[in-house]
Write a structure and sequence with these properties.
15 helices; alpha/beta; about 15% strand; globular; binds glutamine; single chain; eleven-stranded mixed beta sheet; Amidase signature (AS) enzymes
């Protein structure tokens, strides 16, 4: 049995049944990480992981009750805090920062006996879609080095695909879980806004950001999301639910369910290959008894504008805390506090981050612009909620094609940011491969808090739509 290849539910069951030890599992993942070091997905393996595994094995030996993640190994994106460990957001500015506490999501996983093995590469401060703007260098696509890994959760998606871990966590503000999931052929979910606590996660655009699991299949995704979701008094944006049910519809078929495609978005798919794969999937769902409906959401093509105005404005505000005096690396030879701010920020932040801070400050200097963008966001949400009445899920491609060449910069903005602007849940699962063997993801969205409908369709596609992995 290749332990590192096991999924979450499978690993937990086999571990509880005594089929392997946690030390063996951690070692299998470390071996895999070493083997794939050239991909640059995992930037640190924590030195106490074996020790944590030994403790878990001792717990099993003592016949204590084991958690829902016992036997699994998780890697976290470099913007999620783990107590006593570095968390740098892959930025030069935070390259020496060690956290004194763990994010709520990390504590939730630890209380279910997960082993946190290390941290994964990402675009600096989660600003980007190709995993290239990192102090650790570019992440390479899991399948073919010549293609983009996607981003910003590049390392998490690549690591899951390469079986460097049982699952990983990413964050998604405008597609950052779903793009890399699609480009590397794994499952990634951006939950309903407010489902998962962001306490202990570096803030970028607070109106949009969510933490989500990246897994080897959709059933594992629902399972992990149920564990990490829930109200948290340390994050006032979390919704007031103690527990969520994301899995109870898994196993039901699609017959009689209503699935929508969005007219304006369908017309944006220029890539013929992507279009034909997508249409084939829609036809398949129809053939299985699903009802396909075309909808049109008002102002949908303006989600990119809403995203940029709101995200950059919030980024400039959120990142103002990094001033060279606290948390971050301080510039040398400064004669005043002012000089420390200016020099440290100039030296600490990369190009893309600086660009967004400057644009964000400009947006905030024109007060009505941010307010107007937030108003437009609400109008789009209202239209979405109205058009989705009686519809179970909305189907759209995750990206306009397979991963672009590593050197290419494709603008996917709208497909990524739509779910974030709508605050709606969205999953990306692999469903097709092109002739070169590169995966393609489909995105399934639903109304806020309707994750279980997403998981029902995702699992059904995985099960019935042929072998794509
Ligand atoms: N492409 C988006 C951006 O660069 C993705 C960001 C994200 O989801 N963190 O803003």
């Amino acid at each position: 049995m290749e332990l590192n290849k096991l999924g979450v539910i499978e690993a937990n069951k086999k571990y509880i049944d005594g089929e392997f030890s946690a030390v063996e599992m951690v070692n299998a993942c470390i071996e895999s990480i070493k083997e794939h070091a050239d991909k640059n997905a995992v930037i640190e393996v924590f030195d106490d992981a074996i020790c944590c595994a030994e403790k878990l094995d001792a717990k099993r030996e003592a016949k204590e009750k084991l958690g829902k993640l016992a036997g699994t190994v998780v890697l976290v994106k470099d913007n999620i805090l783990v107590k006593g460990k570095k968390a740098t957001a892959s930025s030069n500015f935070l390259k020496n920062f060690e956290s004194i506490y763990s994010a709520t999501v990390v504590n939730k996983m630890l209380s279910e006996d997960a082993i946190i093995l290390g941290r994964t590469n990402m675009d600096e401060f989660a600003m980007g879609s190709d995993g290239s703007s990192s102090i650790y260098g570019k992440t390479k696509n899991a399948i073919d080095d010549n293609y983009s890994a996607g981003g910003s959760s590049s390392g998490s998606a690549v690591a899951v695909k390469l079986n460097d871990c049982t699952f990983a966590l990413g964050t998604d503000t405008g597609g950052s879980i779903r793009f890399p999931a699609s480009y590397n052929g794994v499952c990634g979910v951006k939950p309903t806004y407010g489902t998962v606590s962001r306490n202990g996660v570096y803030a970028y655009a607070s109106s949009f950001n969510q933490v989500g699991p990246i897994t080897k299949n959709a059933k594992d995704s629902a399972y992990v999301l149920e564990i990490i979701a829930g109200v948290d008094q340390m994050d006032m944006t979390t919704l007031n639910y103690q527990a969520y049910d994301f899995s109870s519809l898994i196993g039901e078929d699609v017959s009689g369910k209503v699935y929508a495609v969005e007219k304006n978005i369908s017309s944006l798919i220029k890539d013929k290959e992507c279009e034909s794969y997508f249409n084939a999937l829609v036809d398949f769902i129809k053939a299985k008894g699903g009802v396909i409906k075309e909808i049109e959401i008002d102002n949908i093509l303006r989600v990119g504008d809403v995203y940029k105005l709101v995200a950059y404005a919030e980024a400039s505000s959120n990142l103002s805390r990094y001033d060279g005096l606290k948390y971050t690396t301080q510039a040398q030879d400064c004669l005043s506090a002012q000089e420390i701010y200016v020099k440290s920020r100039s030296q600490g932040f990369g190009k893309e981050v600086k660009k967004r801070i400057m644009l964000g400050n400009y947006i905030l200097s024109k007060k009505e612009v941010y307010a107007k963008a937030k108003n437009l966001q609400q109008l789009i949400i209202n239209s979405y909620n109205e058009k989705m009445q009686g519809v179970d899920c909305l189907l759209l491609p995750t990206s306009f094609g397979v991963a672009p060449k590593a050197s290419e910069n494709r603008q996917e903005c709208i497909l990524g940011v739509l779910a974030n602007v709508l605050r709606a849940p969205s999953i990306s699962i692999p469903y097709a491969k092109n002739k070169e063997g590169l995966p393609l993801g489909v995105q399934i969205m639903a109304k806020e808090l309707d994750e279980k409908k997403i998981y029902q369709l995702a699992v059904s596609i995985e099960k019935n739509y042929g072998e794509v992995r």
